[in-house]
Design a protein that fits this description.
Shape: elongated
CATH topology of the largest domain: Immunoglobulin-like
Strand order of the largest sheet: 25-26-35-34-31
Oligomer: single chain
Strand content: 35-45%
Number of helices: 3
Largest sheet: 5 strands, antiparallel
Low-confidence stretches: 1-29, 424-456
CATH superfamily of the largest domain: Cadherins
CATH class of the largest domain: Mainly Beta
Radius of gyration: 48 Å
Structural class: mainly beta
CATH architecture of the largest domain: Sandwich
Number of strands: 35
Number of domains: 4
Length: 456
Amino acid sequence: MGHGTPDNMACAGLLQNLLLLFRLRQIVCGSVQFSIPEEKEPGVLVGSLSKSFSPPYQLLTQEYLWMDTNTGNFYTTEQKMDREALCPEDTETEECIILHNAIVRPSGDLIQFPVIIEDINDNAPHFVNSEIHLRVPEDVSVGTSFLLDDQAQDRDVGLNGDLQYHLEDSGGVFSLKVEGDEPFIMLVVQTALDRETQDQYQMALVATDCGTDPLSATATLIVTVTDVNDNCPSFSPESPRSVTIPGDSARNMLVAQVIATDPDSGLNAAITYSLSPKVSDRAKELFSLDSLTGYIRLTQDLKSDNSEELLLKVFANGHHCPPADTKVTVSILPTLNQEMTIKIGFIAEHQNQTLVLPENKPPTALAILELEGDSSFKGSSLVIEGKVPFTLSPQNGKYLLSTSKALDFEMKKEHHIPVVVQRRSVSLSAGGGGEQRAWFVTAAGLSFRRRQWRER
């Protein structure tokens, strides 16, 4: 009975534990607590138990602190206290508390006291994504706001974790508006947008904390201006207004291509071509128009001995747009059956049909050209096509071929001079059984070759 039954002993132990917990609670809930900024160097005095308890002193856990057993002073150790690592779940609150156990007084009382780890600004803000993308329609009203979901995070607390935002390199086109305690970051459109003028803006979104020594992070904000159908098709200056084809042209020959453009994108820029219903039956019989490419082709072989001129009115149709129109005049030239020749009389020195011409020589006469044929060629003339350093000047029914400036062998060794027959303001390459002569000029000489004339 002196030692008690097991049940009595268990009850006594439970009572002792309850008394100990009560005593500890009294001590913990008292004024004995300490605080220290995180990341302190070893040997920094945190506090002392000597004001509340008598010696000796023994700290039971010495992972981050060690204690002088005589004075009750305790100091930081080599292992620094990282607030965000010690209290990972409490980084958004003001206090990170670590409880420490110590034995005090000669009676060996067990006490527990809190140490508050104070936050310092040792974490910079960071964005999860280094690039933030936002799509904005080009017809958006000035003053419209768009929510930016990609906000920066900061593991610090208080002012060290409070963030402010600003834009850099926005050019005044956009600004930021921050609302609420969350906060909500809004991108505000400050000027009218035009995708056809500029379809993308790139700027820097900067988040800065409010610590004593502020830290910041930057993300690239890319705003893509999306298209709305605010433009209609128009015909390009490169789209032909007139074209000439020979009277013996073959079926499916490409006659011309009309070209229209729309500055919009995607479906808003889609263009289809069509012939006006007022196009003549003859034109509808001879020509077809590809609605997607704008190609105008012959639908049949031509066998025309007479001149003919047909007008094609073409529409360019866009989505929700009135059609743009252009007119293409197609001139059909008669097939030439008469023979025509060009007679050449060389003036400059020549060898084997090649004129020897030194470089750097001033403008020089090279040859006399004469167009020969029957009376059907009356009124025809010879002209040089393209920009070449040669001239062809009429001389009493003949034509004097000359250089227009000194030739440079190193700059260009060979020149091709296309000569065509022009009749009644229509340019021909020839017809029938005549001959075409094309000249090649080098600084060393002038030569020519022959091939059959073809209508052009």
